[in-house]
Amino acid sequence: MQYDTPKSKTGKTRIALVGTGIRGSNMWGKSLLKQFPAMIEMVALWDINTKRAKYIQSNVGINAPIYHSHNFEKMIKETKPDYVIVTTPDSFHAEYAIKAMELGCDAIVKNHWLRKVNKHKNYWTQRSEQKKNYYHF
To answer: Phi/psi of residue 108, each to 5°?
Structure first.
């Protein structure tokens, strides 16, 4: 199921942050918002630990709803991000990047996932069928 990505009323790129640990909150949340405030809108925080997500929400200054890990699809449908940045523990990167692309988003994940790509051949299928992009850092 895909949706047409709506541009934010402000014209900013819509981002959902999946995983609110140190990598997600500092490297992506705080840094992106600090460097590109006129271009980026953080539309969702998703984590298995909602207390950590709330802490990040208040300390980083992200005014976005928080979703628990069992609500990934709900988060995508309700917030309609352009990009999903996956900063979960490494073993979950493929799962959530593929889900994001299936639901119509582009996905950004950590570089080393490329080494495990043979385990995730479904990724290549999703990428080509959905015409969604995968970015790595």
So the answer is: -120, 125
Instruction: Report the sign of the C-alpha dihedral through residues 69, 31, 84, 73, in that order.
Output: positive
Q: Give 59-116 as a 3 state SS string.
A: HHHCCCCEEEHHHHHHHHHHHCCCEEEECCCHHHHHHHHHHHHHCCCEEEECHHHHHH
Tokens 């493929």 belong to 94
74: helix, strand or coil: helix
- To which residue do tokens 């992506």 refer? 28
Chain centre to alpha carbon of residue 34? 18
Instruction: Identify the bridge partners of residue 67 per DSSP, sorted by sequence position.
Output: 46
- Give tens-digit pLDDT for 75-92: 999 999 999 988 876 666
Give the pTM: 0.77
Q: Which CATH class is domain 13-136?
A: alpha beta
